[in-house]
Design a protein that fits this description.
The protein has about 110 residues and is mainly beta. It has a single domain, classed as Nucleic acid-binding proteins (OB fold (Dihydrolipoamide Acetyltransferase, E2P), Beta Barrel), CATH 2.40.50.140. The strands form three sheets. A six-stranded mixed sheet has the order 1-8-9-6-5-2, with no helix packed on it. Strands 3-4 form a two-stranded antiparallel sheet. β5 and β6 form a beta hairpin. It is globular and about 40 Å long. It starts with a strand and ends in a 12-residue tail after the last strand. About 10% of the residues are buried.
């Protein structure tokens, strides 16, 4: 699987669409997926909106449970990587990040209107 680094500064505003959820390696047995270090993997659905374009939703996997993230909140994604995959006649792109953190509420609020 080829990993493709993603420049998140070019993605515009990123918002949490679905709060962090644990990822299962087997949904029938509810076996929690773990990373190489044994940490549980969580997924966060994030909306991506670039200037003048439609909103896209991507699901990003991250090791450990991201803290302080709620639906609708603006988030910062660090170390985002895309993976192209295929299995038989199915194919797609998966996303993984080093971290997903909330953007400070006070950032961008300072100063008056111009």
């Amino acid at each position: 699987m080829q990993s493709i680094p993603v420049d998140t500064t070019r993605l515009g505003v990123l918002r949490c669409a679905i709060a962090p959820e644990v990822k299962y390696s087997n949904t029938e047995t509810k076996e929690i997926k773990k990373d190489r270090d044994g940490n549980p993997v969580h997924t966060v659905a994030v909306t991506v909106r670039q200037d003048g374009r439609r909103i896209s939703v991507i699901e990003i996997a991250v090791s450990g449970e991201p803290k302080g993230i709620s639906e609708g909140a603006e988030v910062r994604v660090t170390g985002l990587v895309a993976f192209a995959w295929s299995m038989g006649d199915r194919h797609g792109i998966s996303f993984r990040a080093d971290a997903i953190t909330p953007v400070s509420v006070t950032s961008g609020k300072a100063g008056g209107a111009a």
